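ok here's the first one, seq then struct tokens
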Amino acid sequence: MKLKNIIYFKSLKNRLKIFLVCSSIIPIFLIGGLTLYKVYDLYQENLSQLIHNELNQMKENIEVIMETMINMSQQLVYDGQIGKKLYLYLDEEEGIEKVNMLKYLNEQIAIYELANPKIANITYFYIGDKNQLKKINSSLAKEALPLEQEQLSKQGEMVFYGPHQTASVASIYDVISLVRKVRVGGYQDVLIYIESGYKQMEEILENTLEDLDAIYLITSDNGQVIYRSSEEELKVLQDYASFSVEAQGGWKISILVPKVNYYKKLNALAFKYCIIIAISVIGSIGIACGIWQSIYKPFNQFNKELKDIDAGQVKEQLEMLHIEELDENLQCFNKMRENILNLIKYKEKEESEKTELQIKQLFYKINPHFIHNTLLSLRWYAESRNYQDIVCFISALNKLLMYNMEKDKETTIQQELDSVKAYITLQRIRYNIDFEMVLNVPEMVLKSTIPRFILQPLIENAIFYGEEEKSIIKLIVALQDSGKISIKVMNKGNPLDEEKIKKILTSSEDISRNGIGLQYVVRILKDKFGLETAFNVSRVDGEKNQVEIVIPYSRGELYVKDIGSRG
């Protein structure tokens, strides 16, 4: 079973399935679930806030009406002219003067009512004999005060009632009223009665939460419920979500929402969000399928092209896959083939110019030699790994090829070091290499010019003479006291054959292994720097091979390119 699982995960197809599910669908479910949980809390908070806002708005509107009635009563009680006329009216015997005073009172009250639509039915009452209530001015109010059980709040001499039915004889609607004593001269039994305006309370108490079947309650300052928006019997209070706010004066307004409707509203809001999540998941699955088709199918074709190359069936022109990264690699293979053919022709053409030809031959033998070794590694890697990480390998191969195919013969130390890193990346696929690079020089020294492809043969030599199980290679760049640059490549492994190396370095014929290597390095360095260069091979600490080149510091005008940024 374990072996079967390993084989399953070796397949790129199966890995893509797992990665697409893990990177697209699962995150949406996780993020969607967590967001839904948070959104549900947010909806609950918003719904509660909506109800509280409704309560506060109703309370404020009622308080505005109550404040208006208080201000109006202040004017009617303490207004000098009205108070004087009222006193004279009460004190005057029946006659023309009494009628004129009453007319004045009616006119002033009508002006007040007309100027403020929030109040109506302003009426002066006089408590006569046998506690009988009598109207003084003309109004639509009945000769009766609100019942005691309708009392809302008492604030000093002012008593608020309601909501209750209007005292008007002309219509039926709910109002809030104010009753206040008026002290006029020696008369202690005069009252003023003020109601809220026509249907003002209906607008305030209009149920804006009908979809929740909410019930509005108004409770007096002594705890009695004096108003309820629904005539139906209340169920068990535990079945309602209760929200309330207390007003100035001790009275309170509350909203009861059946919990069934409350959570139904929340679930309906959450369901809408679930639909969004479902649409997102479907969209994510569609995108994942698109990624599957756009990646796996071209990769299969690319894999087939590689197998054809490995089998020696190199096409004259490889078919492009219309995927930038893969097409760039295929173009590199085409370029490799063309460069190999061009190098062969160039070698035949320039054979007559011996000294220059040997250097050019060595230089242009780099690409076929590198291609040969790299393709061997590609073949070994493909056979042992079943092409699973081939894209990473080819990417590194592409970077190094682009560097090696530059036409300029000179480069910088920094660019050479970058090419060495890319080369090590490729060779690590085949060999177990522990590579360390130590730069003991200022950054400006790394811009010093150097012939192209000087360091890679040294690294290749270190791999060849390294230990079989693990190659330990160290590259050190340092400045000598003389001001020259020292580049050392050290490795643990079998001792170098000094006689063979001496013969290679001194021979005029190309006898180095695979046709390139140390002989190429020495010839290029001498051609470039003459006597200012040095090439040393030694055994260090009895277990390390050391190859050192010494070159003068040369500040060129080459721009340091980043090999890692190439295609």
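and now the second one, same deal
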Amino acid sequence: MQRTLTILLFLITHGMIAQQNVLTPEDVAKLEYVTNAVMAPNGDKIIYQKVVPEDPLQKNAAASTHLYVYNVKSETSTPLVTEYSTSNLRYRPGQNSITFLTRQKGDSASSLYEIPVGGGTPQKIFEFESSISSYDWHPQGQKMVFTSRVSGDDNTSKLPYQPEIYETNLTNSSAFVADVTGGSPNKLEVEGNVTGAQWSPDGKHLAVSAAPSSLVDDFYTSQKIYIVNPQTLKVSAEVTHKAKLGGLKWSPNSEKIAFIAGKDENDPIDGRIFVVDATGGTPQILQQDFEGMFHDLHWIDNKILGFLASEGVYSSIGTLKLDGKMKKVYSDNNVNITTFSQNEKNEIAFVGNTAQHPGELFLLKKGNSDAKKLTDSNPWLKDETFGAQEVVTYRASDGLEIQGILIHPVNNSEKNPLITVVHGGPEAHYDNGWLTNYSMPGQVGAGEGYAVFYPNYRGSTGRGVDFAISSQGDPGGKEFDDIIDGIDYLIENKNVDGDRVGVTGGSYGGYATAWMSTRHTDRFAAGVMSVGISNNISKWGTSDIPEEMFLVHSRKRIWDDYQFFLERSPIFYADQAHTPLLILHGKEDTRVDPGQSYELYRHIKTRTDTPVRLVLYPGEGHGNRKATARYDFNLRMMRWFETFLKEKGNEMPDTQLDPSNR
């Protein structure tokens, strides 16, 4: 086998066999993708947004989100706004126009702009003293409700220096009703931090979501829905339900509200559908035993909801009656659906990705079983060679069935090195679609000869509430044992070399990477940890979600069992670590404080001779947003695996990157 590979490499090097085009970090850095789609009520147009990244070799900036319109009849796309980013797309009622939020040169804050559906120059139609974060049109299209964060009293110090008082003097978002033709906005009398507001179809009521404060922890744990009278601006009713809260929609007759939320306060995700009367009160849960999760919903009529859901690694669009009866309308195991929109004719536009391409716009016409892909944002991908992607199912050591996704190397051999990619959360999951980005090796790894494994360990979403809560109270326990069981399955069945297994992940996936590189160091030849947890005791006091962590993760307080939390921390096992570990962290991360990376780095550096490196990204938070920072991450990750996983070297790569000579 080795002789065959040597001959093949010689033939490729000397031009006797055409070298395959495989995905590279440079390719990942230029990927464009569709993220949002909204159908016109009559179905003749679809407005959609496309993310366009900056060139990482020229500018370290976040990607732009451009606006396009697709004409269903002519089957053509027309760019509407490509010079700057847009957000919060809406069709304006009674007008043949689209509105969006943006901040252009000369604007003091993000403002509301309007552009004809047929194109033209966007015009600013409303601005406020501070940035507008969200808005919704009154059914007649002249008034709107919007949210904005308005500064409170001036607390400027009388001294020449002013300190920052942590979690004090917080600025909340409020909701306002405004007539865009003139007049001053009126503030709704809703206490706390307003996170969204929506008009009822008859224009007589508003549904408003709000948290007690602007703290992230309150957003996750304590949001409520209020019904507000737009004439008096006062709260007339509220919905009684304490859990994570997602999107909400009014019924067409304005008599009910459907919303997505957690089953209860211990449910780690907003993945159940509830319906409540517009007069408030206790909502009714629909399909409470559904072994999946709901992502989005809308009303088809007063008795039927349309939904987008995940079941395991697959997604579907369907209908749900108020009596709980559910029906799938569209599903394709090769297409992962991320968002959808439906018009009056029950035609559906959605954004979907596959193993061969990131997000694109699709259209499903009424009565059809197959959806048509309408856009092709990266035509050059057709010339790339991809590794085969398959869904794998295996049994954990205690018999629980676990799903995962495996990308095979482009040139599969009898023994392949493996990169294991662990998702964060842990309330998240991988879908059978596009699995390559700056922090996920995916097809870049496959092109360089790695198998790449994405396990949906216990505690992942997409398989019902019981599975999602099955890891609670056991951090680093059976949840991560599931990953090792999956690796053993791949070694036995999928040509994986057990001596060349790597691991990477961010946030909770970074915790898993640190855990595997210390507690289970004998199993892993290389690790790349991103924004991860190393000390569960200090993490609690430095994170912005301590209460959320208690309610849906730990389920007990650290001061009730310090020893338990210490022994579930990677630093506890740092003295035995011999897995070479690259640690990457945004310096402005508030979710997982950079101190978590400092701690693990210092422990391994001081207590072992194991190769360890800490890379900090100024200006970045819980994950990298800007082009050069993302590209740098991708290059360092792949180079680390090349050194310690493929070549089995002992010396760390140079600290400097040379993209022209990787």
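notes on #2: The radius of gyration is 26 Å. The longest strand covers residues 496-506.
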